[in-house]
Structure formats: C-alpha cells, structure tokens
Amino acid sequence: MPARQGDTVAVDYEGRLEDGTVFDTSANRSPLLFTIGSGDVLPMFEQAAVGLEVGETVTVTIPAEHAYGVHIAEGRQVVPVDAFGEGEPPVDAEFNVIADDGTEFTGRVIAISDDRVNVTVDFNHPLAGHALTFEITLRELQPADEQTGQNSQSL
Questions:
Q1: Mean pLDDT, to the nearest integer, of 3-14?
Q2: Is the confidence at residue 149, as pLDDT, over 90?
Q3: Is the pTM of this model over 0.85?
Q4: What fold does the segment set 73-122 form as a domain?
Q5: Cα–Cα distance, 13 to 11 (Å, whole number)
Q6: Residue 17 gets which letter from DSSP?
Q7: pLDDT of 152 above 80
Q8: Residues of the chain with pLDDT > 90: what percent?
C-alpha cells in the first residue's frame, strides 16, 4: 500500500549538500517518524514520501528557497563582544534574541575580530542558500484510517 496524506510514516534518510557533503542522516538512529500533511518536516521532503511503499527509496532535491531559504547578506551583523556579557562567545555558538515585537531569532557566532572587540553573527539558518538532496527510504507505514482504530499498530 503506498503512503498517502494523513498516514504516519517512519523513514530512513540521508541529506547531502550540493558538493555531496552529508549534513544529516538517520543512520545509527531511529527512523524519522512523521505524519504526511502535518507540516513537521520540509514540505517537499514530506511530498517525496507520498506514493512510496515500504522498502522503496526515492531521491529528492529541494531548492534553497523551498528548504531553509536563500542566504540573506543582511542576516549577518557585527555586534560588540560585550553584548554577550562577560567573556567572548565561542565561534559556532548559537543564541536566541527576542525582538521588540516578541519575535525570537536564533543567531550563530561566525567570527570574532582580531582585536576581540566585535563579533560577527549570522541569523540565517545554517543550511540557508543550499539546495538539499535527500535519499529517503520508507521503513514503516501506518495508514491514517488505522490510526484511531482498535487494531492500529504503533510505529
């Protein structure tokens, strides 16, 4: 039976960047579990699972604008190191900032000036600007019409 909207699926996957670098994988972990149509994963990742039968594999490439967005140059800002309190933050450290309107943003330290006075922060998602290629294998399927029935199986 092929996977369809509303079904809960468990998939193994490997995500690669344009240069072939693996940025995420379910190898050595439990399969990724989600319900098709719930919006818990990238929409094109979710749609790639539609129509798969257990054991089948599909490869999908998701353009940057449909994944984590294009990289926005204005998303990088230089701020004084003392904005981080005592001590300088380590490069690659992530932190949250809450704007005046209550919106929360995650930033990542990407550089500290040689004189240790300023920090360059990137508010873009680390995968922004990258097309992402996923190899997805359907491992388990729980049809939507069985999820509330007495004979439903847990994934």
A1: 97
A2: no
A3: no
A4: Thrombin, subunit H (2.40.10)
A5: 6
A6: -
A7: no
A8: 79
Q: CA 69, CA 24: separation in Å to the nearest integer?
A: 17
How far is residue 74 from each of residues 66, 70, 154, measured CA to CA in Å? 20, 12, 46
Interval 30-56: pLDDT, tens:
999 999 999 999 999 999 999 999 999
Where do runs of H (alpha helix) occur along 17-154?
43-49
* Domain locations in the chain as residue ranges: 8-68+128-146, 73-122
Does domain 8-68+128-146 fall into CATH 3.10.50.40? Answer: yes
- Smallest CA-to-CA distance from 66 within 42, 38, 37, 40 is with 42
- Express each pLDDT in 50-84 by its tens digit: 999 999 999 999 999 999 999 999 999 999 998 88
For 38-53, give one letter per residue: b (16+ CB within 10 A) or e.
Answer: eeebbeebbebbeebe
Tokens of 7: 């079904």
The DSSP bridge partners found for residue 11 are 32, 138
Residues 6 or more apart from 89 whose CB is under 8 A from it?
A: 81, 95, 109, 112, 119
Tokens of residue 64, six digits:
């940057």
